[in-house]
Amino acid sequence: MKKYTCPMHPQVLKDEPGKCPLCGMALVPVGGASVSHEHTSEHGHSGHSQHGHADENFNKHEGHHTGDFLTRFWISLVITIPILLLSHMIQQWLVFSLAFNGDKYVLLALGTVIYSYGGLPFLKGMIGEVKAKAIGMMTLVAIAISVAYVYSVAVVFGLEGMDFFWELATLIDIMLLGHWMEMRSQMAASRALQSLVALLPNDVTVERGGEAVKIKLEDLQSGETAIIKPGEKIPADGLVLEGLSYINESMLTGESVPVKKEKDGKVIAGSINGDGALKVKVTAVGKDSYLNRVINLVQEAQATKSNTQNLADKVAKWLTFIAIAVGIGTFAYWYASSGDIAFALERMVTVMVTACP
């Protein structure tokens, strides 16, 4: 039983070679995949063509890589330090002064870098959510940082008010770190899944025409007689025809003590033979094996969102709409009551940035 995975998305495991449903990269055999930090294809995902199920199927981390989020976080964090030092609000809070000719343009340059570099995953995520009609956290974050950035640029070029560059930078830092932690936990589960696939041997010895012949695992057929030497992995589910041994099934069943297997005893693919030699009649290979069913169950569990996740997605969706509505309402109220468009804009931006958790 050979499995294929995506170098960019190890959580994707398929029985046949093909394209990754998340990023379009060619799948490679498990064990031969090298993790790449580059995207070699556009992220057009056919799985989202049916908008009736878009909210359930959309994956906000499509096209993202765990290491990429961490790299963006550290670089953004370094850029955040001078932004904080040049921020007038931070200077007022900490009672110090750091000003020079053109400091606002330096702040603008640093803010532009962190917005375009650190905020890029969220901007791309917003586009994906809008296309999939699955408005969520990515859209909320993207709107918050975009509003803060555009308003701050306007302040630099003459609009009355105080910029939001430090709020922009810290918000991006926090969100990058949070998404990295989330993706790291997903990757840990994916590596555990791949470890199950790695339990199977690449080659197997079978008895054909009275002789022992070594073949590739994918060529093994149900009904053949496999010869299992001491210390080898069991290649497929089967029944013991000859021999006696103790089999380590701990990775599959949780049984800590090796299980005695003799004639007519059942063995499971992926378990490890002890000191004895066995002849096993293969009863299930590939998709029909116990190990493959376990892998499929784990994959289904990973792909299924919990009730908490569904609730969080719904909250993020409505929070996005509420933030936009309240922001517009805030602007309308203050502009109508004071007639000061600059003050009304500042209040609107404050509300929309604050609404992003």
List keywords for this structure.
357 residues; alpha+beta; 6-stranded antiparallel sheet
Structural account:
This protein is α+β, with helices and mostly antiparallel strands. Among the domains are: 66-199; 200-290, Distorted Sandwich (Calcium-transporting ATPase, cytoplasmic transduction domain A). The chain has helices at 54-57, 66-86, 88-94, 103-118, 120-131, 137-156, 165-197, 250-253, 290-303, 307-338, 341-354; strands at 4-5, 13-14, 28-29, 203-208, 211-216, 225-228, 237-243, 245-247, 259-261, 266-267, 278-284. It is elongated, with a radius of gyration of 28 Å.
Give the gist of this structure.
The protein has helices at residues 54-57, 66-86, 88-94, 103-118, 120-131, 137-156, 165-197, 250-253, 290-303, 307-338, 341-354; strands at 4-5, 13-14, 28-29, 203-208, 211-216, 225-228, 237-243, 245-247, 259-261, 266-267, 278-284.
Q: What secondary-structure arrangement, pairings included, does this model have?
A:
Elements lengths: L3 E2 L7 E2 L13 E2 L24 H4 L8 H21 L1 H7 L8 H16 L1 H12 L5 H20 L8 H33 L5 E6 L2 E6 L8 E4 L8 E7 L1 E3 L2 H4 L5 E3 L4 E2 L10 E7 L5 H14 L3 H32 L2 H14 L3
Antiparallel strand pairs: 1-2, 1-3, 4-5, 4-6, 6-11, 7-10, 7-11, 8-9
Helix pairs in contact: 2-4, 2-7, 4-6, 4-7, 5-6, 6-7, 6-10, 6-11, 7-9, 10-11
Spatial order of the strands forming the largest sheet = 5-4-6-11-7-10
**Which strand-content bin applies to the residues?**
5-15%
Alpha plus pi helix count: 11
Alpha carbon gyration radius: 28 Å
Helical fraction: 40-55%
Mean pLDDT: 81
Give the low-confidence spans. 32-61
Structural class, from secondary structure content?
Answer: alpha+beta
* Strand tally: 11
Distance between the termini: 45 Å
- Element-by-element helix/strand order: EEEHHHHHHHEEEEEHEEEHHH
**What spatial form do the alpha-carbon principal axes imply?**
elongated
Largest pleated sheet = 6 strands, antiparallel
